Amino acid sequence: MTLSSIVVPTTPFEGQKPGTSGLRKKVKVFMEKNYTENFIQCILDALGDKLQGSTLIVGGDGRYFSKQAINIIIRIAAANGVAKLIIGQRGILSTPAVSSLIRTHKVLGGIVLTASHNPGGIRNDFGIKFNIDNGGPAPDSFTDAVYDLTRQIKQYKFTPDLDCDFAQTGVQTFQVDGRDFVVEVIDSSENYVTLMKQIFDFEKLRELIKGTANRPPFQVLIDSMNGVTGVYVTRIFVEELGANPDTNVRRIIPLDNFGEIHPDPNLTYAKDLVDKVKADATYDLGAAFDGDGDRNMIIGKRAFFVTPSDSLAVIANNLECIPYFKSNGVHGFARSMPTGAAVDRVAAKLGKEMFEVPTGWKYFGNLMDAGRLSLCGEESFGTGSDHIREKDGIWAVLAWLSIIAHKNMSIEDILTEHWKTYGRNYFTRYDYEECDSNDAGKMMAHLEETIADPKFVGKEYSAGGKTYKVKQADNFSYVDPIDKSVTKNQGIRILFEDGSRVIYRLSGTGSTGATIRLYADSYEKSNVTSDAQDMLKPVVEVGLELSRLKEFTGRDEPTVIT
Ligand code: VG1
Ligand code: CO
Fold this sequence. Notes:
Layout (H helix, E strand, L loop, with lengths): L1 E2 L2 E4 L13 E4 H4 L4 H12 L8 E6 L5 H14 L4 E9 L2 H11 L3 E5 L11 E7 L8 H11 L4 E4 L11 E7 L2 E8 L3 H10 L2 H9 L9 E4 L5 H12 L8 E2 L20 H9 L5 E5 L6 E5 L4 E2 L1 H10 L5 H6 L3 E5 L5 H9 L3 E4 L7 H5 L3 E6 L3 E4 L7 H15 L3 H12 L1 E12 L1 H16 L7 E4 L2 E10 L2 E2 L6 E2 L4 E5 L4 E6 L7 E11 L7 H16 L1 H5 L6 E2 L1
Parallel strand pairs: 1-9, 4-5, 4-6, 5-10, 11-12, 11-13, 16-17, 16-18
Antiparallel strand pairs: 2-8, 3-7, 6-7, 9-10, 13-14, 14-15, 18-19, 20-27, 20-28, 21-22, 22-25, 23-24, 25-26, 26-27
Helix pairs in contact: 2-3, 2-5, 10-12
The protein binds alpha-D-glucose-1-phosphate-6-vanadate (VG1) and cobalt (II) ion.
Cobalt (II) ion binds next to loops.
């Protein structure tokens, strides 16, 4: 059938500014007439001349409004001269799977439909993110350009009569304005499963999960939290590695509202999993992922919690257990600034380069492309390597299983051994979600003023019988070592003489009000098995006092503690 595109007049919407990871708003905002259309047109416009004849990957975590958004993308892409879209079946692709597909097919980029760990469903959040040709989240320069375009947009191009079904795999070709426009609907997991098989020794992992004559099965409980990873967990853990579908996996059907839960793998929102693993000592490992599958939480027997900062350090210390690193070699390591510095100690011992970048996975991409970074992570339950350009939840669990299979040790024993070797970076994060934006802004302004005082360095603060002397304070800024781009205002850091630190940031992923994050950590050489919350209580109290958080926000308690 021959189709024609039309030009639709439109006017700008306020606030289409991508945050830490894409544009996230309430579903009802994306549903407003022309809202989604405007944003998609601006992404395509920001791609410039490269757009003509290009191929893009499209998919997401399947949350409410994904299908409508994909229909809009198909009709706008066809009208704008895109030659081909590769779409996950029923619109389903995890964020790591999109990254892998972009790299495998060497295409211009991908549009990811997700608000990640934010709740979904008609009353909750939707999101749109663009990944560039290296497979990673678009850098600030690109998202700033998109934002500028959204403030000037006057029209978008659309192919109103293009009806394209993406429920079944296969290739469909349309004639749009005299050009061929191809939609290829692909299996959501095939490419990703192939990649994982190249990275890990699946035979060895299968022996671990199924058990052998000499070793009972290693019991896992893998929780997809009703998010997109269910599709991949079924393929990898159940079909490939022989996990029991009744007892080793849960919540593996992707639901468009995530079953009304918050698909965020932490001790608060994945409490259900934590309680199950705590109550049933047969489980050796529990793991959970977020809505779009890039985050992971790892717990051991009886729900022994592995902080993401420690998880990164342990993986860094054991990369020889993973075939991919044996053949590709290990270049440097990196972490986001607020992430605990456990991995820095591993880097120092192994003689690897170590980078500290702002919060957000987009800051790792250049270093990976330049061959200087193999493994990186964030305290926000993100771990990944240069196999793709996104953090990767399932990859992290397979990495842990590889280490466990190799060392034949429990998770707790692996951690204890690690801390005995390197000392321990105790870490915690307090989140105050949905605060009033004005109040949060005032608190940050107060902190800016506090650290600007030339007499601030050297001041002493006490709590819980401990005294902390300020050594250094700043608002973190970063110069990318590869392209020299500068990113400022990435969080207020107060570093104390004893090596402890508190960091304050406003979240860039929420859709309502402001979320304040307070990060605290401290290093202990020999006292390595105490309770993290007890250990960090004094420094957190100092952090709260310095920021006057309670006074500004009226909040007595955080909503989430990690
Ligand atoms: C949060 C995390 C950050 C992560 C980002 C995206 O950002 O702190 O480390 O990269 O979410 O993760 P913020 O600005 O809210 O602190 V995902 O899984 O939501 O794409
Ligand atoms: Co995510």
